[in-house]
Each structure stands twice: as C-alpha cells, then as structure tokens.
Design brief:
The protein is of the alpha+beta class. It is built from 13 helices and 23 strands. A four-stranded mixed β-sheet has the order 21-22-1-23. The chain has a four-stranded mixed β-sheet with strand order 2-14-16-15, with helices on one face. Helix 4 (97-105) runs parallel beside helix 6 and helix 8 (232-244) runs parallel beside helix 12. The N and C termini lie close together (6 Å). Bound molecules: uridine-diphosphate-N-acetylglucosamine. Uridine-diphosphate-N-acetylglucosamine binds next to helix 1, helix 5 and helix 6.
Length: 417
C-alpha cells in the first residue's frame, strides 16, 4: 500500500519538466510487435502500467527492457499470441495488443482487460473494427479469441471516437491487405504520436488528428527510434495544483495545445497563463473564482482525465461550478473523499456542483482510482493541516515520482511505500 503524506498550505513555485505520456507510450509499445523490429523509445515514464506492458511483451517472447526513461524492444523473437489473464487484468490498455497480434500473427487470445473502474468500459467498438477487417471473434466468458486467415482493408465507422478502438483499428490495419479508412476516429494527440511511430516503422498512415485516418501498405523497417510526447494530463495536474495553492509554476517541454482547454478554464478561474514556445507558466494568487460549466468531451474538448484534478482546484473557488461528465459514467468516485476535506460537492448522475468553501482541512483519505487519487493530492496540497492518502497503487500507475516532482516545487509531501 502506498501512503501519501501531505502537509498542505505551501505555494507551489518553480520549474517542472513534464514526464513522458503514459497513454502515448502504451499503444506504441503494442505497435512494436507489428513487424520483427528492434526499437528504442525515449522519454518513456517509469510507471506500473508501462512495466505491465513490458511484461506482456516479454511473455510474448520479445526482449523488452527499461533503463530510466529509455526502453529497448526486440520483437524479432516474438513467439506467442496469447496473453494470460493475470497480465491482462493489470491495465485496460492491454486490449490494444489485440490489434497488433492479429496483424503480426493472424490470431490473438486474451481476456477482458482491467484498469480503472470508471464504468462499463465495453470493447464492442474494438471488436467491430477487427471484425470488419476479416477477424473472426469468439467470446467465451471473459476470454476472447480472434483469428483471421486474410486480414483485409476495410471502411470502419466508429459510432463514438474511442481512443482505444481507434488505436486497435490502426494497429490491425497495418497487417491488412489494401487500404483501411477509419471514419469517426479519436483525435487525441496520442493518436498522432502513434501515427508517427507507425510511419517510422514503415506504415503508410495519414489523417491522425482528424476524424478520418487512412492506413495503406507497409514497407517494414527493422529498426526504429522514437521520443514519447509529454503527458498532457500530468501537465494539467501540476497546473491545477499550482492554481489551487496560489502558486507560480512553469511547465517545460510540453505542447500547450495539448491541454489548452484546461489552461482556458484555469485562466477563467483567475490564473495568469503565459504561453511561450514549449513552456507555459501558471500563476495564481490563490483566490480562484468559479467557472460556470465544464463539460468533458473527446479531444479537442475538455479531457475527462483532467476533470477530477480541475474539480480539486476549484474546491475553494468563489461561487459555484458545474461539471458534466459525458465520457465515463462513474467518474466522480473522488467526490465522497473530497467532501471529507470539507468540500461542498453535490452529485446527481453525471453532474457535479461544486460550491466553493473558504477552507479545506486535512484528513485521512483513500484513493479511488488513478485521476481521483491525483485529485486528492491536489486538494490535500490546498488543505490546512495534514492529509494522508491510502493508495493501493493507483497514482503511481500514471505519475512518475510525483512526490519528488511536487517536492521540487516546494510541496510538503512524501510517499511511504
Ligand atoms: C483512453 C485513455 C483514458 C481516457 C479515455 C478517454 C489510454 C490508455 N487511456 O481510454 O485515460 O480516460 O481514453 O479520453 O489511452 N466505449 C465503448 N465501446 C468501446 C470502447 C469505448 O462504448 O468499444 C466507450 C467507453 O465506455 C467510454 C468512451 O467510449 O464511455 C470512451 O472510451 P475510450 O475513448 O475507448 O477510452 P479508452 O481508450 O479506454
């Protein structure tokens, strides 16, 4: 059990270099098995989810190692196409190995994925996309088997721009004969990062970042090097922590476009935002005001992953903010814990009303999920007295050395393992 100890009330101040993106790393790790390949990935965060993906790669017969933020993969030795339940259940993103395995081996056998308990999280869109490319899918309880004799290009219409389904379809399409066109694709920066990697390994892919992605043939390369993009949700979390504590933080090495909606709302709440090339500074005087309504949406809308941390930043803002969560049905799990700090939040279905309070008081909390746990840290930094968060490893799934990162900015926080 991880235990976060936070003594709140310190302004965050200083420069922070934002870690590499977890959600960009994971599909690229899966993509490394598409063809026999040796690849180096730089700026990969050291996280439990990344480690889980590396263990899946090793289970499949690849060499996969991480030293600091460098990852080396040799997938020329790939020898398996099934992933056992105990590896699948560690994280939801393991499901994108399905598209990559189908493309490389013509078959994949895995069980339903794990990950944060944010709601139903079905994978029907993933399976439908693979089916359209010729895969035969059998579901037996929690086990899924996919098999294909000839993977072919297809026109795929996603009725919702699912990030994972878009990635799975892109990966499978790399092994298909003929062109695949994905309509209604997710437009997240992580999809563009995946496209860049696929191009590096020889795939003809275009359109990532728009609603239509085209995947043509593949001229396989045997070596690839890629740098992972910075993590826009970690950047959002540090920005929200700066806002909540009346701090002044400069985030370096990030692309502000990737979290512009978060910066927009922090600005609306009263923070000064100065946007330079590859750096953003957030300055708050600690007296935030409510920001009306925030609605989570697929990119380029306001990200659901930043919703809990923005909520945490607004707990002491003057007035009432309404947050509407449209992506996941169970994404207010942090609310009962935040209330224990003195927050005034009312939830009804997918809507939460946050009425700002004058002060929050530290207490003992339990992290509910990855971003919910991060929200508790942000709130704890803004609370008076000590906050202790018991965390069954949620936050470290997505934040690398977060205690050190915040301590370098002046926070009084330490993580007991
Ligand atoms: C990814 C991110 C996650 C983020 C989410 C939404 C990674 C590793 N994870 O998750 O951090 O919160 O995008 O931005 O990149 N859906 C279906 N059927 C499907 C697939 C999805 O109905 O087959 C629904 C989901 O239930 C959910 C919505 O689509 O309501 C969005 O899910 P999706 O975009 O697929 O999220 P993930 O890829 O799982």
């Amino acid at each position: 059990m991880d235990i976060w100890h936070i003594r709140g009330g310190q302004r965050l101040e200083g420069i922070s270099f934002v870690q590499g993106s977890k959600n960009a790393s994971l599909p690229i790790l899966a993509a490394s098995i598409l063809i026999p390949l040796r690849c180096e990935l730089h700026n990969v965060p050291k996280l439990r989810d990344v480690d889980a993906a590396l263990r899946i790669l090793r289970h499949l017969g690849c060499r996969a190692e991480q030293w600091g933020n460098e990852v080396y993969i040799d997938s020329t030795t790939l020898s398996g196409s099934s992933i056992p339940h105990q590896l699948m259940e560690e994280m939801r993103s393991s499901v994108i190995f399905m598209g990559a395995l189908i493309a490389r081996c013509g078959e994949a056998r895995l069980s339903l994925p794990g990950g944060c308990q944010l709601g139903r999280r079905p994978i029907d869109l993933h399976l439908d996309a693979l089916h359209r490319m010729g895969a035969e899918i059998e579901e037996d309880g929690a086990e899924i088997s996919c098999r294909v004799s000839k993977l072919h290009g297809a026109d795929i219409l996603l009725r919702y721009p699912s990030v994972g389904a878009t990635e799975n379809a892109m990966l499978a399409a790399c092994g298909g004969k003929g062109e695949t066109v994905i309509h209604g694709a997710a437009r997240e920066p992580e999809i563009e990062a995946l496209q860049e990697f696929l191009r590096t390994i020889g795939a003809e892919v275009s359109g990532a970042g728009s609603e239509t992605i085209r995947i043509g043939g593949m001229r396989p390369q045997d070596h690839a090097v890629q740098r992972i993009i910075p993590d826009r949700i970690v950047a959002s979390t540090i920005a929200c922590a700066a806002a909540a504590t009346g701090g002044h933080v400069e985030l370096r090495g990030i692309d502000s476009k990737h979290f512009s909606t978060v910066l927009h709302f922090l600005n609306k709440a009263g923070c000064d935002i100065i946007n330079n090339n590859r750096s953003v500074s957030i300055r708050s005087d600690g007296r935030l005001r409510a920001i009306g309504e925030v609605v989570t949406e697929p990119y380029p809308g306001f990200p659901t992953d930043a919703q809990p941390v923005l909520m945490a930043a607004l707990l002491r803002a003057q007035g009432k903010t309404v947050i509407r969560e449209t992506i996941f049905e169970n994404r207010f799990r942090q609310v009962p814990e935040l209330r224990r700090l003195g927050a005034d939040i009312r939830c009804s279905g997918r809507t939460a009303e946050i009425q700002g309070v004058d002060f929050l008081h530290g207490t003992a909390l339990t992290a509910t999920d990855l971003r919910g746990g991060a929200a508790m840290i942000v709130a704890g930094l803004a609370a008076e007295g000590e906050t202790v968060i018991c965390d069954a490893g949620h936050v470290t799934r997505g934040y690398e050395s977060f205690d050190l990162c915040l301590r370098a900015l002046g926070a009084d926080i330490y993580l007991e393992y």
